[in-house]
Amino acid sequence: MQFVSTRGQAGSVSFSEAVSQGLAPDGGLYLPSEFPDITPFLFEWENMSYSELCFSYFRLFATDINENTLREIVEDSYSQFSHNEIAPIVSLDENLKVLELFHGPTLAFKDFALQLLGNLYEEQIKKSGRDLTILGATSGDTGAAAIAGLLGKKGVTVFILFPDGKVSPLQERQMTCSASDNVFPLAIEGTFDDAQRAVKEIFSDLEFKKKVGLSAVNSINLARILAQSVYYLFAWLKLEKEDRLNTTFVVPTGNFGNVFAGWLLTKMKLPIKGFQVATNQNDVLHRLFKYGQYSLSEVTQSLAPSMDIQIASNFERLLYFILDGDTQKLTQIMAIFAKEGKYRFDNFQVDGFSSSSVSDDEIPEIIRNVQDNYDYLVDPHTACAFKDLKNSEKYLILATAHAAKFPDVYETASLPQPKSAILEELKEKKSVKFSICCDAVAIRSFIEDKIS
Ligand SMILES: *Cc1c(COP(=O)(O)O)cnc(C)c1O
Predict the structure, then answer these.
(1) pLDDT given for residue 312 in this prediction
(2) Contact 277, 357 (CB under 8 A)
(3) Looking at residue 299, what is its pLDDT?
(4) Which residues pair with 279 in a beta bridge?
């Protein structure tokens, strides 16, 4: 299987190459060059464990990795999850189910991809003998999950930019208390989008990229998208047969990575009814699906900080399909968007998507209502999914984080603060972070200094 860039100027590459590059050299994002029809496998996949299913799915794409090695990598990646089903489904009522994606080491769904990515990198370094430098920007959870997935991996040095003061104190501790000498958490002044922009700029410096073996752990990395498809598939297979065709997945969304990973399965003919894109007050995607206008506005800090994003990088992948693979047109649109901060589509229509947006005032209220109605505690990101749901429809809500990660909101909801043992332990540990100016030159020189 080969992988191509959304901007059409990068040539096709193998799975391992696409994963180690992260962003394609033409500035685009990698996608599989073809999509297998997975429907013939579904019967066989139905009763598989999570890691068996993940292996079977990845085998279709990671064709340049030895099968036994791939099996070991996958098994190891889900060995640190605290729930034996890995991604359990909880029924709230007849029509409403929750897919819990927070049983990994950092208590957010990003562990699903980043535990795997850490092992894929390690395998690659073993094979190629070339060390890798990982650079990423985070609104909190990616950084924590990346560090947990990469700490102590041989040949990997990790640099994670985060907006100082804008991630939750617990997220900050997850990033800064790893006590691992291959990990550098960089605190920048500004927003997640500022951090992401600096990262993109550094990635576009191809000479530097090559020199330090730069790779990305943001959801621009293809391995993340493919790894995240697996829990949609796993959940779909766990649904009652009559529910499979009429259940909508509701996905708390920032960068469009998670929801895109699910949608990709429809390109492989999995008959998923639809996706509800659930945003917080940073509603660029809601406005896109509602009005066809993709336009930036100021990022505002919300109670669901991991979704405080305006530039939804993975939208580019969807756009590729909307434009029927017209990479020239896509490059044009992205250039206009980069320059003007907006793009208006005439007739923006993508089947299978709906959207919603939740303000900060509503989040504690929703948390309270869900607790009262279903005796179930959601985190502020997952809370955003409980909006604009129709009474007679069936939904599967993706619970993206454990409530204990964002304890501050519960007082407003008149609920006790949730706790988690893993997070309590972190409070005892020493925290180390590096304050740095959010500027490509400064960051590049910091990286070079640390890896030399
Ligand atoms: C990252 C994150 C999201 C948003 O995911 P995207 O892939 O950016 O859409 C939602 N909820 C939580 C808890 C997250 O960590």
Answers:
(1) 86
(2) no
(3) 84
(4) 357
CATH number for the segment(s) 89-107+223-419:
3.40.50.1100
- Report yes or no: 392 and 93 within 8 Å, Cβ to Cβ: no
CA of 81 to the centre of ligand 1 (A): 18
Best residue among 99, 141, 226 to mutate for probing ligand 1's pocket (most ligand atoms within 8 Å of CB) is 141
Interatomic CA distance for residues 140 and 286, integer angstroms: 22
Q: Which atom of ligand 1 is nearest to the CA of 140?
A: 15
The predicted pLDDT at position 311 comes to 81
Residue identifier of the C-alpha nearest atom 15 of ligand 1: 141
Positions in the chain whose pLDDT score sits under 70 = none
Distance (Å, rounded) from C-alpha 308 to C-alpha 310? 7
263 vs 10, 226, 239, 318, CA distance in Å? 24, 11, 17, 9
pLDDT value at position 131? 94
The span from the CA of 413 to the CA of 197, in Å, is 35
pLDDT digits (tens, 9 = 90+) for 349-376: 888 999 999 999 999 999 999 999 999 9
CA-to-CA distance for 400 and 378, rounded, in angstroms?
9
Confidence (pLDDT) at 349: 81
Q: How high is the pLDDT of residue 452?
A: 86
Q: What is the pLDDT of residue 396?
A: 98
How many Å lie between the centroid of ligand 1 and the Cα of residue 231?
Answer: 15
Q: Which residues line ligand 1 (CB under 6 A)?
A: 108, 110, 141, 219, 252-258, 306-307, 381, 400-401
Query: Probe ligand 1: pick from 101, 138, 255, max atoms within 8 Å of CB?
Result: 255
Residue type, 151: L
The pLDDT of residue 192 is 85
Domains of the chain, by residue range, sit at 89-107+223-419
> What whole-number distance in Å separates Cα of residue 450 and Cα of residue 452?
6
Nearest to 81 by CA among 46, 55, 116, 56: 116
Q: Report the catalytic residues.
A: 110
**What is the reported pLDDT for 309?**
83
- Give residue 310's pLDDT: 80
- Of 57, 374, 363, nearest to 228 (Cα)? 57
Strand partners, 353: 275
